[in-house]
């Protein structure tokens, strides 16, 4: 006989099986319980490399005493960080909403 607890257990097992074995390398990972696809991870790694490059360029510009350029680069970096965080939250909310639409029998 199919009971609600059996369906919940099947859903838990399905989620465990479908979960990826590798973790996101993003240091912004505040919710690590939701899995990410390889494309998402690749996009966020590229974003993080661009942010790191901006931070390095701002440090180099400070070394050569170009304060205005360093401030502009730090400002752009902060904007990129915010955009990255917002994009990640939107994607995770979309995935969570899509998961909630799955029938319990899956």
From TrEMBL:
Record keywords, A-Z: Membrane, Transmembrane, Transmembrane helix
TM annotation in the entry: 41-63, 69-87
Protein name (record): NADH-ubiquinone oxidoreductase chain
Organism: Olea europaea subsp. europaea
Taxonomic lineage of the native organism: Eukaryota, Viridiplantae, Streptophyta, Embryophyta, Tracheophyta
